[in-house]
Design brief:
Helices cover 65% and strands 4% of the residues. The protein is mostly helical. It has one domain (3-78): Winged helix-like DNA-binding domain superfamily/Winged helix DNA-binding domain (Arc Repressor Mutant, subunit A, Orthogonal Bundle). A two-stranded antiparallel ribbon has the order 1-2. Helix 1 (3-15) crosses helix 2 (18-25) and helix 1 packs across helix 3 (29-43). The longest helix has 27 residues, at 58-84. It is elongated and about 50 Å long. The relative contact order is 0.13.
């Protein structure tokens, strides 16, 4: 699983609509759908009911608090790193390959 998948999952939880969640996440609807489908394959079951309305399945509801914590911790780690960075820490990346 990747961080963007977790963020897309959380957006979809809030929006309850794939198109709106994709727009909120700054991606196309097929990209968001593919990311959610990949998570579902990884977990071995559906995270959302698609019809008649988008809603969490029992599995989706069970993992939502964990994904919320992961996203919050990632945000805190980023903010902490930025607060402690010095100008010398921000060297440009060298291209590899």
């Amino acid at each position: 699983m990747q961080m963007h998948q977790i963020r897309y999952f959380l957006s979809l939880c809030e929006e309850r609509n794939f198109t709106r969640a994709a727009k909120r996440s700054g991606v196309t609807q097929p990209s968001l759908t593919n990311a959610i489908s990949a998570l579902e394959r990884e977990f071995g079951g559906l995270l959302f009911h698609r019809r008649p309305l988008v809603a969490l399945t029992a599995m989706g509801a069970a993992i939502k608090p964990y994904f919320s914590n992961i996203a919050a911790n990632a945000d805190c780690a980023r903010d902490t790193a930025r607060a402690h960075a010095t100008p010398g820490d921000r060297e440009p990346f060298a291209a590899i390959g």
